Amino acid sequence: MAPHSGINTDDIREKARKDLLDLLEGVRGKKNLVIEKSLAGPIGIFVKFSTLQDHGVDKIFFLENDNVDASQKNVIFLARGEKANQPIAVAEQIKRLQKQSNIDHEFSVVWVPRRTLVCNKILEEAGVLGDVGVEELPLHFIPLEQDVLSLCLDDCFSDLYLRKDPTSIFLAAQALMPIQQAHGLFPRIIGKGDNAHRLMELLFRMRSEAAADESTTSKFGLMPSASVESLVIIDREIDFATVLLTQLTYEGLIDEMFGIQHNQAEIDSSVVGPAPGAQQSGRTPAAPAQQGLKRKIQLDSFDKLFEQLRDTNGAIVDGLLNKVARRLQSDMESRHTAKTTSELRDFVNKLPGYQTEQQSLKTHIGLTEEIMKNTQGDIFRRTLEVQQNLYDGSDPSYQHDTIEELISRDVPLTAILRLLCLESCISGGLRPKDLENFKRQILHAYGYQHLLTLDALEKMGLLSSRASANVLLNPIGMGGGAAEATKTNYNYLRRVLKLVVDEVNEQNPNDIAYVYSGYAPLSVRLVQSIIQKQHLLTITKGASAASNGVSSAAHGWQGFEEALRNTKGETFNRVQKGDDQAVKARHMLAGTGGKAKTVVVMFLGGITFTEIAALRFVAKSEEGRRKILICTTDVISGDRMMEAAIETGDFGRG
């Protein structure tokens, strides 16, 4: 069998689409589809509503709304089966329809990505298991982009770090196994963090189980992959600080201010204008009817202008848009210079493209103006100043007056908690006196229900007190011993991995630090220590030290052992070997190759858009040598991290 040329995310998208449509085809006639809200966005990425209609879907209802009607005999429920809430909701709605409807309904339940014992037990206890057809939809990775795969597990962060629920680790392993089955074993699995170590062990166990299962042995790759170089697993827990910082790339700023979910952002139409083709009642640019009306904006590589802007630092987007506007104006004016019929025909053929680009330009100018309005505000600048002082290594106590002022100005709680958690992560905790003072101020300003919020942050390890002043300089006892760190020592890593870069060229960046205007994400620095050893050694120790040190052919973490001892969690570097005879035969048939191999980078617990931009920067500099495929449990931000802990109840106020 010829080696695969690489991992094609379009194949993953097409398989997901085909699996879903095949399940719908399996239920004859018209049908109503009841879908869990958290699945609607991911499914919308690879299949349109019109396609579902072509396959017999009449109406779509959200499971959480409990409003499915009896308009069709066939009712299909599509929900995740990992937790009890969804099976309970499915059972209740089936019983309601059976009781209230005169139609003899035929029910089907499709569990994503698998059927569990919990599902069966709940449906059985509700007395409806015998009345439904049960199927599975093995929907694992969803391609957000050609180089980004996500499990789209919205609750993954709180499950892993607050509730200590390892389900997402198992689902990540289940998602990675088909890649091994299609492309061969990951030749090397490298990673950092306790949960990352659990994922690695799970992959080895699943491989053993697959090898023992005769039905899967024939299709399972017994050899290390010829197209994949390695799997790098990063546990989010080793670098919480990066997520807590304000993202400063264009896509990151959109996410910070509007929120991006499954390649879409809901934005007020007064900012981006009405949808293309929408009728406008007047010619005023901001008609009252538009105020408060939300419009969904698609943010992916199908928008060529967004693809060009997304990973740039937000500070230069305005200038880039000006260039595009001038170029587009020049192109549109070319119709006046067309002298022949063929030149005019060429212009007419290009006109739809110009109109699409013009609409995209209008949208992004509106977004940029709104972003600039926010970033030039006093609160944004004060918040950013505190963040930069903290990661620069300044005494955190000097930032407390600013944080207290922000509390008194009724800044959103998420912003305050991000600053406190950032100080806690970088400094090894807050002084007990300061922590108690901030807790008291938060309870007075935002409500006593946030006793539970603060407790949740402590459980996740995001907010803690430090035992002594020495912890600020040495939070984990830097003795160079072999013991794993219990906290990530940012003060040490700032120096040895050059996390802070003073001179940043945002226009033509030469380091990943441009994504935070001077701070290099630790998570991506660790990935660089594996795939860009010489480059990282050069910028951290100098060219002479790099040339005399570790060779570029060194594998795994070699050369950065001391940095890893100062980073939280277990460190591992495991090689997967296949059948020796099969490996030799493959080498004889395929030769040495020469094509760029793929490094799969898996972020367990979530990744930010800024880290994705930094990894793309690394991939661009490695072009021709290797490709990077980014996998994650979900795309997160500092606000979503805080929302996982924030208590929404109000203790009966009023």
UniProtKB/TrEMBL annotation:
Signal peptide: none annotated. SUPFAM superfamilies: Sec1/munc18-like (SM) proteins. Coiled coil: none annotated. It comes from the Eukaryota. It holds the Pfam family Sec1. One of its GO terms (biological process) is vesicle-mediated transport. InterPro entries: Sec-1-like_dom1, Sec-1-like_dom3a, Sec1-like, Sec1-like_dom2, Sec1-like_sf, VPS33_dom3b. Residues 271-292 are annotated as: Disordered. Belongs to the STXBP/unc-18/SEC1 family. This is Vacuolar sorting protein. It comes from Letharia columbiana.
